[in-house]
Structures are given as structure tokens and as C-alpha cells.
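Run: sequence + iron/sulfur cluster -> complex structure.
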Amino acid sequence: MAPAAPQAFRPRPAVAAGAFDTRNRLHKEKTLPTLPDTKQKGLVFNIQKYSVHDGPGIRTIIFLKGCSLRCDWCSNPESQALHRQLAYNPQKCLGVDACKRCLDVCPHKAISVGEDRKVVVDFTRCDNCLQCAEACPADALNVYGYEVSVEQALARVEEDDIFYSRSGGGLTLSGGEPLYQSEFALALLREARKRRINTCIETCGNVPWEVLKEAGRYLDSVFYDVKSADSARHARVTGTGNERILENLRKLREAYPGLAITVRTPVIPGVNDDEASIGAIADFVCTLPGATYELLAYHRMGTPKYGYIGRTYPLEGVGNLPEGRIEELRAVAKARAECCQAAN
Ligand code: SF4
Ligand code: SF4
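>> structure
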């Protein structure tokens, strides 16, 4: 018997524009589940308790991974990539005469023995499989980034309810850029607001306006970074121009007149530590009714972390601001406007 002829392919009939196509319903329900806020998950790299510098009162800060800027002075370089990543601190390595576990497990031969008999990681070969970190008994090899749900994160935050009620504190989202993981961040803020937790974010403002606008509905206060009023210079030191950042800040002020907004400028030697730069930002802040302005002095506290993740600190060799310089620049800012407030 001759084999049956293959059935001709018949396209499914088209669905009239605007009609509900039931053929895709199951598929959509399976692939695009709408999670309740508490089940949303995100990638964080630290949850820090008892902070008193990042919003009113005593606060818990959740640091989220991911950022669209690449500021040369970033003190949290482990925050920038939106994935879990390997970190190696050679000071903790036991030495290969006592332990060789990482050498044995690395599938990419990214680990070798250095002159001091400790291991050396070649990050250009590493693909962040993280097997070596799992094997390391001394935490010399470690991981930046872990997944948490909104419920898990807020459980940590709520452990300190008693401090918040006495001090006016609460939750601060930081990073990285906390709104970079927009769904998770918004779910966190919504749920925190539902639970009457005071909320604050530290943002670089380089996010879609719709995300910032939605966040504004659930926020009590915002720290908003403006690094330079000059877009070309901003692009040179962060990788991105400042147009969206300034526009978002204007819109945020207009949309939420009651929101406490503090504009912050990290003052970086050779970038914005001159009167004209600070004066230009202060002038912009003065166009935002009720906003306050703070200057933060450059520091180098994050530099060891660059080495841990196989990077070189972009501002190597740049020293601190000269003694008294930050006070001079605060005076410049204050002279521009009554609204300007010096940071402590
Ligand atoms: S994380 Fe990198 S260095 Fe470690 S085992 Fe995987 S590939 Fe090797
Ligand atoms: S597993 Fe850890 S302690 Fe052992 S050699 Fe590797 S880095 Fe050092």
C-alpha cells in the first residue's frame, strides 16, 4: 500500500481585529503569569540594617543589582551587572598547599597558582558558573548577588519595625539603580506602602519615566543624583548624557509636589569640583519647588571591590578633595539659593 500523502498545511483562520483570540489564551496564561507582589523575585547584593544616613530615622537598605550608568567613581562596582558574579579576595585564600578545591572544579581553567602559592583568577576566562565559590571553604571565592522575593525581603525589613516607629525610619532601596529591576522594585515599594512602611529610594534617575512615575506613588522620600549639568561631561564620566535624568527630575517634582526630594551631587576631583559645575546644578535645583540639595565628598571606600571582581578602579591615582574644599563648594551652592542644604 502506498504511504498516505502528507496532509497539506492549512493556516488557521484569521481572527478579526479586536476580537479575543481564545487560541492563544492558554499559552499566554502559561508564559506570562501575573505574580502577586509578594512573590516577585529580584537580585540583591546586600541588605543592610540600622542605617542612619539614607533617609529619615533608622532604616534597612536593600541594595539591588543592575545599573544603566557606569560612573568612574562608583563605590559599589559589584552592583552594576544584573547577574550573580564571582568575587575573589586573595587575603582569605588558604593557599594551594592547604587547599586546591577551586583548581579542581573550574571547568574553564580560569584559576591558576600565583607566586605566593595562592590562586589567581583569570576573569577573562571565567563565565560565572560559580562552582569554585561553592567549593571554597574559606569564602575567598564568593558571590555577589542572590535572589529574594518581596516577601523574604520585607520579612527582613519588618524585623526592625520597633526602630522605625520610634525613629521615623523604614525601608530604603539603593543599588545599583534600584529601579533598573523595575518590576521587583515597584512590587517591593507597593507592598511596603501597603504595610505602612516608610519608603525611600536612592536613584540616578536614568530610568523610563513611566517607572519613576509609578514609583512616586509609593514613596515618602527620594535621593536623586545629579552628577553634572553638562551633558557631554556627564556622558564622559558615566557613559550616558543627562537629558533624561534632568527631565525625569522635573517631571517627578511636578507630578508629586508633596514628595520629599533631595538632590545629591557626589563631588569628584577633576569632574565637578569647581564652582561653575556646582553652581549650575544648584541653579537647576532651585527650579524645583521644595527640593533640597546636598553635596557628598568623594571617597575611595569601594576600591578593593574592583580587584575582587577582576576590574581596575577607573580613578586610580585620584586623591581625596583638598581639606576644606567641600565646605567651599557647599557655600557656593548655598549662595545660589535658600533651598540648598549642606550635607553633614
Ligand atoms: S566561576 Fe569562573 S573561576 Fe569559578 S569555576 Fe566558574 S568559570 Fe571557573
Ligand atoms: S578553594 Fe578557596 S581557599 Fe582553596 S585554594 Fe581556592 S580560593 Fe584558596
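>> summary
The chain has a mean pLDDT of 89. The CA atoms of residues 203 and 224 lie 5 Å apart.
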